[in-house]
Known about the structure:
Layout: H1 2-17, H2 19-39, H3 41-45, H4 53-64, H5 66-83
Helix pairs in contact: 1-2, 2-4, 2-5
Amino acid sequence: MSVLNVSFSFILQSAIFNFQSLLTVILLLICTCAYIRAMAPSLLDKNKTGLLGIFWKCARIGERKSPWVACCCVIMAFSILFLQ
Length: 84
């Protein structure tokens, strides 16, 4: 179990210090939260404030700005696949 915690903290730390990885993590969080809210809205709607409210806010961003989020996902995918 400690190996999993160490590898997760390493991934998170490397995403914080690398700007492109940070943007990828944020985009994945927004897309995942919007998908979860579309499939099971009660999971995110009950936690609109506090620490878990971050996921509700990400879902709202994904719903309201979905064309922009989709465009950013395509650009990020192109960047990861062809520019790295």
